[in-house]
């Protein structure tokens, strides 16, 4: 009985999904950066020193979400017949991105508690 989805076709489909998920992550980060920059400019024009903390929190949320999309892309990349080298790379990348996300989330929570947004 022939394979319903040969590994080559499955690999190409997963590669397309990886590109889409990684593009989504990049778009989230870019949209957050552009919006945060606009909010930063508004806070600077108004002379609102506390507005900078709000902008950092706003941007941090987008960065955390974008990192999650990037990690999802990495997981997808190793979904089809991963080699030990790919698994090792995924482990290293996942560790780094998870650590970045952890510390970013911790910073967001700390900033929230400082401004009473929690």
Describe the overall structure:
- This protein is an all-alpha fold and 118 residues long.
- The chain has one domain (7-115).
- It is built from three helices and no strands.
- It has helices spanning 7-46, 51-77, 84-115.
- α1 runs antiparallel to α2 (51-77) and α2 (51-77) packs antiparallel against α3 (84-115).
- 12% of the residues are buried.
Give me some keywords for this one:
mainly alpha; 0% strand; 118 residues; 84% helix
Strand content: under 5%
Q: What is the count of DSSP helices, taking H or I runs of 4+ residues?
A: 3
Radius of gyration: 19 Å
What's the mean pLDDT score? Answer: 85
Q: Give the % helix.
A: over 70%
Largest beta sheet, briefly? Answer: none
Q: Please tell me the total number of domains.
A: 1
Number of strands: 0
Uncertain ranges:
none
Structural class: mainly alpha
The backbone outline, from C-alpha atoms, is elongated
Helix and strand pattern: HHH
Give the termini distance in whole angstroms: 58 Å
Write the layout of secondary structure elements.
Layout lengths: L6 H40 L4 H27 L6 H32 L3
Helix pairs in contact: 1-2, 2-3
